[in-house]
What does this fold into?
Amino acid sequence: MEGTKVFLLAISFTLLITFLIKPTIVKNYSMSPTLEEDDFVIINRHMTKRMAHKGDIVVFKSKLKTDDGKEKLLIKRVIAVAGDDLKIEAGRVYINGTLYLEDYLKYSYTRGELSLKIPEGKVFVMGDNRNNSLDSRDSTLGLVDSSDIVGRALIRIYPFDRMGLIN
It folds into this structure.
């Protein structure tokens, strides 16, 4: 009977990892102070069944390549979604004409000047560490296709003293 329980638990865990969640390690400082380098997070892969919302922290496939030629996964915060009018001016972010309040930022100044309407099927992402983030403000990355989103960051499980839900 014990062997059956262990087997069922192993199968359940395998299915959970395969279809619903994905563990990942943060590999840079672009999301600081929300996420730090080497934070171990769980992403909700089921989130890809719905559109990303403003404020979601998402992992997505980028146009960038790793040193071994694989597509690079990045983690950033969704700032604007399809249909939004986004404006960055004088260090501030405006969505649909309203100042976008971001209490999670350590430094509230956002470099760059731009104005655009987010097209269908795309999202605009930025790192929380605006002074050290390759994100949608840079043409190297640009807007992210919604279909390239792998999942939404859900829980930080390491370091243990910062374990908890991710906002």
Remarks:
- The CA atoms of residues 105 and 114 lie 20 Å apart.
